[in-house]
Amino acid sequence: MRAILVKEDKSLVWSDVPEPTPRDGEIIIDIHATALNRADLMQRAGNYPPPPGWPEWMGLEAAGVVSWAPTGSKWRVGDRVCALLGGGGYAERVAVPADMALPIPAGISMVEAAAIPEVFATAYLNLILEGRMKKGETAFIQGGASGLGMAAVQLAKYMGAAKVVTTVGSDDKAALVRELGADVVINRKKEDIAAVLAQHPVNVAMDSVAGPNLGACLATMAHGGRWIIISTLGGAKCEIDARDFFRRGVYLIGSTLRSRSSEMKGQILESMREQLWPGFTSGKLKVIIHQTLPITQAEEAHAILERQENLGKVVLVVKE
């Protein structure tokens, strides 16, 4: 089969690779589409290797058709599935633990399904499971116009947040995230994020930025607030006044989905399916696709993310 490999000069090539060999409890999926994530850019740069046991090529989520399943599996050959991966989505086939695959919601295309697992599982894990968001609370999401941000904004509203606050980098992006349910949209290039948050005390935050502004933002949280850091796109170092923790009873939580065990990921996905799949089938939750490209144009797809041009997910089509 073929997959996208990273050459020494960091260019991407569609190359021959070995067929996947399933281990106990795994199925094989013929991939129709795979969606990009910022982690792919980090892996390409050599800064985010896949967990042990996963292919070296990129791709954290995919959709396709089951081409092989062991006797007694809950899956059958021909089942349409989307899957959360530790790696290996930029390929024609992938072996994946059966519990990390999900049935594609009714009415959702392969391209849309490929863009569900990573971002919605990340948002669900951090806002609902780690952040313990309750109905009526205020949620804050950094980067509301990214693929992850759009999923998180919708998820927060769908799960009962009274107010969703988010950041964007331009006014045109602000209009789109408002359509998806954001109540307060902060243009990070024009406004002081912490000053705006002080007017809207946050109960739960999903932060992919961190950086030097983190301390000021934490100081604005509602009592008992949960601030979940999932990445450090704005920088890994900041100054925090420790008094804000005990004065406000604030929790600062670090979280990542990729490094968790397959068993834990399966549990997260099953909980997410129970809670969110009705939202996809009813149309209350939407998969926002910015652009689709053939897998052989992975370089161009990466460039879109690097330039931060995307409003939603970029998807690579492997098989029509």
What does this 3D model show about the protein?
The chain is of the alpha/beta class and 320 residues long. The protein folds into two domains: 2-116 and 260-317, Medium-chain alcohol dehydrogenases, catalytic domain (Quinone Oxidoreductase, Chain A, domain 1), CATH 3.90.180.10; 120-254, Rossmann fold (3-Layer(aba) Sandwich), CATH 3.40.50. The protein is built from ten helices and 15 strands. The strands form three sheets. Strands 3, 4, 5, 6, 7, 14 and 15 form a seven-stranded mixed beta sheet that branches. Strands 10-9-8-11-12-13 form a six-stranded parallel beta sheet. A two-stranded antiparallel sheet has the order 1-2. The longest helix is centred in the last third of the chain and has 21 residues, at 262-282. The model has no long low-confidence stretch (mean pLDDT 96).
- Give the distance, in angstroms, between the N- and C-terminal Cα atoms: 16 Å
Number of helices: 10
Query: So, the CATH homologous superfamily of the largest domain?
Result: Medium-chain alcohol dehydrogenases, catalytic domain
Number of E strands: 15
CATH C-level label of the largest domain? Alpha Beta
What helical percentage do the residues reach? 25-40%
β-sheet strand percentage:
15-25%
- CATH architecture descriptor text of the largest domain: Alpha-Beta Complex
Number of domain modules:
2
- Structural class by helix and strand composition: alpha/beta
- The CATH topology name of the largest domain reads Quinone Oxidoreductase, Chain A, domain 1
* Rg, nearest Å: 19 Å
